[in-house]
Design brief:
Elements lengths: L6 H20 L3 H23 L5 H21 L6 H28 L5 H22 L5 H22 L7 H27 L5 H25 L1 H11 L1
Length: about 240
């Protein structure tokens, strides 16, 4: 048995890392957070890599890059209280991660062309863009001048990620679409809670809800991406195109 590819083992370790991060954050135990939070993306990224490396296409490489920059963002945010500049580093890392995910989803869309469900995708996209606009607008009065532009850029990037995930409907297998799209929604939810708690007003549940929604989002996106590339039909289709 290949432990690095084994899904139950890796996701169990991932779950314990998530739990440790939540407990450490709730108890203000920085040592526990430092030990567990980076481990989340290390485990998830390793699991994704060893399961997808035989595919090795642009889509999987972009998802892998998104997981890597998420790891950088996690580490930077651990130290944001020591230096506010670390918050901007974390924001930049997650911005790149969002763009990597968005490019991966757009790659799916461009590969398949027109598909059923476009109107539903468009409606979902409009809802996400509308939410992003009004949420960002509601934060503006509370933001320091130096973070206004980064927050606006980040909002655009995460909305792009959500919209591109929505447009995978009808262009991939339904489980892959649902996993990735729900993951994108949870990522947006996590960042919305974090932004509200940081800039608008403190939320009692933020210490656990930010990490929980983020952790579930990442594992759904990675799992949905694997479902797309490892489906037997997709493997046969790529083999036929390469001959």
């Amino acid at each position: 048995m290949d432990l690095l590819k084994n899904t139950p083992i890796n996701l169990t370790v991932y779950g314990f890392a998530v739990l440790g991060t939540i407990v450490g954050g709730s108890m203000d135990n920085s040592t526990l957070v430092l030990a567990c939070k980076p481990l989340m993306m290390i485990v998830l990224g390793s699991w994704f890599y060893f399961n997808s490396r035989r595919v090795g296409d642009r889509f999987t490489l972009l998802i892998q890059a998104g997981l890597f920059f998420s790891f950088i963002g996690d580490v930077a945010l651990i130290f944001q209280e020591q230096d506010e500049f670390n918050f901007l580093i974390g924001l930049a890392a997650f911005l790149i991660a969002q763009l990597c995910y968005a490019m991966a989803f757009i790659h799916n869309i461009m590969e398949t062309g027109p598909a059923r469900g476009t109107w539903i995708s468009a409606l979902l996209g409009v809802v996400l863009i509308t939410f992003g606009y009004f949420f960002a607008s509601s934060l503006m009065p509370y933001l320091d001048e130096y973070v206004v532009v980064p927050i606006v850029i980040y909002t655009v990037a995460i909305c792009l990620m959500g919209v591109s995930a929505a447009f995978r409907l009808g262009r991939t297998y339904i489980k892959s679409f649902l996993y990735v799209f729900i993951g994108a929604l949870l990522f947006i939810t996590s960042d919305s809670i974090l932004a509200t708690n940081t800039f608008h007003h403190p939320l009692d549940h933020a210490k656990w809800s930010v990490i929980l929604t983020y952790a579930v989002a990442q594992v759904l996106i990675a799992s949905g991406a694997l479902r797309h590339v490892l489906d037997p039909e997709e493997i046969r289709r790529k083999a036929a195109l390469s001959t």
